[in-house]
Design a protein that fits this description.
Order of helices and strands: HEEEHEHHEEEHEHEHHH
Number of helices: 9
Largest sheet: 7 strands, mixed
CATH architecture of one domain: 3-Layer(aba) Sandwich
Oligomer: single chain
Length: about 250
């Protein structure tokens, strides 16, 4: 198959497909287009009382893009994984270009204990994988990500395949046809820039310059509310933004 360069990867996601490998050491990739797709719409995230308490407790410190390589490496560090070296390399390149992002969760000692990474196109975010080394760490990462999407006016988080864990957090399964409709609207609304330019060249600029203002809306919200986005009050803001549903 063609080299998995950043543009090819973005074009695949914009078309509703994504790459996977059979194992960490696999040399081949295959493109996947599920007949039924799991998504979380930003207004339907299910924030349980227990998760809300964890967010407000200050048990974890949460950051954006502070260690993307460590998050993707941790997600791939398991007995069965679909993240091989080619996928990891392409995602790291997309991160440098400002398309792929990570949320890091650290305990009070500063150790990385959870996280999630993925990429954004238009008003959609594709959650690729998450990991947890402490109770609720991945749930906290996902909650912060959904809060970021909600604050920025994004429409949905693509979860690819349904799991009991995702279902408990508000994920639903929709048919491929409906997913394609939602994806098309989200990409068109956000002006992703996929395929833009007759030359096919990437727009100039550093990674930070490619982050759209909407994706950083949560940071502005937190800066206006609390001085430290990893402090206890910040978790309270996240819980309030998502709303308590049970």
């Amino acid at each position: 198959m063609p080299t998995l360069d950043p543009r090819l990867l973005l074009q695949g996601y914009a078309a509703g497909i994504f790459p996977m490998a059979d194992s960490r050491d696999a040399k081949e990739l295959f493109w996947v287009e599920p007949r039924r797709r799991a998504i979380i719409t930003v207004d339907d995230f299910h924030l349980s009382r227990s998760l809300a308490r964890t967010l407000r407790s200050g048990k974890f410190a949460v950051s954006l893009d502070s260690d993307f390589p460590a998050v993707i490496a941790a997600c791939a560090d398991r007995s069965e994984t679909w993240i091989n070296a080619d996928i990891e390399k392409a995602m790291l390149a997309l991160h440098q270009l400002g398309h792929a992002h990570s949320v890091e969760v650290r305990d009070r000692s500063g150790e990385l204990v959870g996280g999630i990474y993925g990429l954004k196109l238009g008003r959609a975010f594709f959650g690729e994988s998450m990991f947890s080394r402490a109770t609720d760490a991945s749930k906290v990462a996902l909650a912060w990500l959904v809060a970021r999407l909600k604050a920025g006016g994004y429409t949905f988080l693509d979860c690819q395949f349904m799991t009991d864990h995702l279902k408990s957090l508000g994920a639903v399964v929709i048919p491929r046809e409906r997913y394609v409709e939602l994806l098309g609207a989200a990409v068109a609304a956000g002006g992703s820039g996929v395929g833009a330019g007759a030359s096919g060249a990437w727009p100039a600029g550093a990674a930070g310059e490619r982050r759209d203002p909407e994706f950083l809306a949560l940071d502005r919200l937190l800066e206006g509310a609390v001085p430290d986005a990893g402090s206890v009050p910040a978790g309270k803001v996240i819980a309030q933004l998502l709303g308590q549903t049970s």
